[in-house]
Amino acid sequence: MTAVGTLVLLRHGESTWNAQNLFTGWVDVPLSEDGEAEARRGGELLAANELLPDVLHTSLLRRAISTANISLDVAERHWIPVRRHWRLNERHYGALQGKNKKQTMETYGEEQFMLWRRSYDTPPPEIDPGDPYSQEGDPRYADLGDEMPRTECLKDVVARLLPYWESSVVPDLRAGRTVLVAAHGNSLRAMVKHLDGISDQDIASLNIPTGIPLRYDLDENLRPENPGGTYLDPEAAERAAASVASQGR
Ligand SMILES: O=C(O)[C@@H](CO)OP(=O)(O)O
């Protein structure tokens, strides 16, 4: 079967809050210097593999936007059309946004910490609208109304991501375009869960590394011909995914 579409998933490079081990979610933090370097490396990998995106989809958060800009600039694809949507945002981390991961684990214990961080359907407590890390009143979310989350578990992310996948990403894939999705650890875990048909249990142990393009060749049913996708730098991806898994320790 010939692949109908090529999808490239790119988690943003390290952010300043990744570097400080803080729960981030919808807080709009920038890339760290290392994160910018990862984004440049991501662009080099795209160019070296002749994997040149025709269209970009990003979240509304600058760590994903900047990563895509830097990578595409390096790959000489800075000019491609872009669509941005909140449905590609990171999982909203509720009241944990801005909290240190290690301290959270020490305060609540490893079981509760992992339940909030990786269980499929247990969201963290809701964020208070007056919390300094709440997005209440942020103009970019003015149209969300009742859909504005105050916390999310991965199941919630899957539910809000899939309408965008169907309405906006799938048509680009079906048109034969190479589609770059620049997003986040948990919004991409939601996408990979859908693509690979991963169970609610097994998704807990899947972690996506920062800054390494993950390629999927999709058949006409939009099922991966290469299940699990193919990282353009598999060794670096394995090391980096293990480091995401161990955050908090
Ligand atoms: O803090 C976050 O928003 C995410 C991604 O950095 O963290 P985690 O990997 O713990 O879900």
From TrEMBL:
Family annotation (Pfam families): His_Phos_1 (PF00300)
SMART domains per record: PGAM
Keywords assigned: Gluconeogenesis, Glycolysis, Isomerase
Enzyme class, UniProt record, top EC level: isomerase
Origin superkingdom: Bacteria
Site feature: Transition state stabilizer: 184
CDD domains in the cross-refs: HP_PGM_like (cd07067)
Residues the entry annotates as binding substrate: 11-18, 24-25, 63, 90-93, 101, 117-118, 185-186
Catalysed reaction, written as an equation: (2R)-2-phosphoglycerate = (2R)-3-phosphoglycerate
A GO term for molecular function: phosphoglycerate mutase activity
Annotated metabolic or biological route of this protein: Carbohydrate degradation; glycolysis; pyruvate from D-glyceraldehyde 3-phosphate: step 3/5
GO biological process, one term: glycolytic process
Residues at the catalytic site: 12, 90
Keyword Isomerase listed: yes
Stretches for region Disordered: 223-249
Gene3D superfamilies the record matches: Phosphoglycerate mutase-like
Composition-biased stretches (Low complexity): 239-249
EC number(s) per entry: 5.4.2.11
HAMAP family from the UniProt entry: PGAM_GpmA (MF_01039)
NCBIfam families in the cross-refs: pgm_1 (TIGR01258), PRK14115.1 (NF010713), PRK14120.1 (NF010718)
PANTHER family: PHOSPHOGLYCERATE MUTASE (PTHR11931)
Function comment: Catalyzes the interconversion of 2-phosphoglycerate and 3-phosphoglycerate.
Record family assignment: Belongs to the phosphoglycerate mutase family. BPG-dependent PGAM subfamily.
Name this polypeptide is given: 2,3-bisphosphoglycerate-dependent phosphoglycerate mutase
